Amino acid sequence: MRPLTVWVVSDGRAGIENQALGLAEAVQRLTLADITVKRIRWRPRADKLPVFLKTPALLDPSSDTVTPEPGQAWPDLWIATGRATLPLSLAVRRNSGGRTFVVQTQDPRLSPARFDMVVAPAHDELAGDNVFRITGSPHRITPARIAAAATDMADTFSPLSRPHVAVLIGGRSAAFDLTEAHAADLADRIARAIRAAGGSLLLTFSRRTPAAARAVMIDRLDKLPGLIWDERGPNPYFAFLGTADHVLVTEDSANMAAEAAATGRPVHILPMMPRRPAGKFARLHADLEGRGATRPFGATLPVWTYAPLAETDLAARAVLDAMAAR
Question: Which of 127, 201, 273, 318 is such that its CA lies 20 to 30 A from the CA of 231?
């Protein structure tokens, strides 16, 4: 059986790329597949052009090639994520003569009919005959991957008292803010809960975390047993999820909340300072809470169980079914 050829395309930002790559890896778990990652960016003058005026010729020379080399066929499956990839997805669907099945993740803000399939977060409320909606976005979290990552850091984790509490902090966005005062309050509440449980802290920040908020949280939490990632060395995110008995995640990140819900461990949602109505974030958190994965963070760390969410696997099966049916 010939493996599927799969191209994963993004602008290279980890949070964006991992959506497309996670879906591709889920396809690979279901069938033989060869995955090639493509990272692109537009020339500065082309970047702000409308989608329909961009062509591959306007890509920055540092971009990976997104058309077949001489003698090479178009891929069987193209999975792309992010606004930067939209012109390329449209071009591939047109130029491959129907050979390539084109999947876009996230809401493309274009008619879904322009793609073979759109895998979209349910909280975006996108609808269409070829739209497959999931809770959150596709991601790379699997029980096997995070368990392996935790095993690789076993020497670091084994001396730490249980429960291990992974704390994932986001930051300022269009909908939320993390002020210094709010960060201090969150840190104090987190510290009290971990001390009461006799546990250990595993803390990581987002690139969006304001410097003042980061500093005050580190100041108030660094006396706890555990590990605060200083962004040196390999990112321990997968390992943190793999060893965690509890996951605390700020409400501003749909990706981190959905990924945490794939662990099957209690996920506690940390409040942020609102900048506008929560909208889609409120819908996502209601969905996750309704499925038993999350609860608002309180003064303690209660334990509960639920079936780990496997939304990326569901989307991968839908992609293969759609490819087989056309």
Answer: 273
Which residues are 77's β-sheet partners? 6, 101
- Identify whether the C-beta of residue 86 lies closer than 8 Å to the C-beta of residue 105: no
Q: What are phi and psi of 112, to 5 degrees?
A: -60, -25
Q: How far apart are CA 30 and CA 316, in angstroms?
A: 8
At how many degrees (to 10) do helices 311-325 and 14-30 cross?
60
Distances (CA, A) of 147 to 136, 295, 302: 22, 24, 23
Give the C-alpha separation, 17 to 14, whole Å: 5
User: Tens digit of pLDDT for each residue in 254-313?
Assistant: 899 999 999 999 999 999 999 988 789 999 999 999 999 999 999 899 999 999 999 999
The C-alpha atoms of residue 105 and residue 87 are separated, in whole angstroms, by 14
- pLDDT at position 65 over 90: yes
Inform me whether the pLDDT recorded for 233 exceeds 90: no
| Beta-sheet strands, E only, within the chain | 4-10, 33-39, 77-81, 101-105, 117-121, 131-134, 164-169, 176-177, 200-205, 226-228, 246-250, 267-270, 273-274, 294-296
- Residue 186's nearest CA partner among 273, 281, 117 is 273
How far apart (Å, rounded) are the C-alpha atoms in residues 216 and 181? 9
Mean pLDDT, rounded, for 111-138: 96
Written as six digits, the tokens of 226 are: 């555990």
- The token pair that represents 114 in the structure block: 């322009």
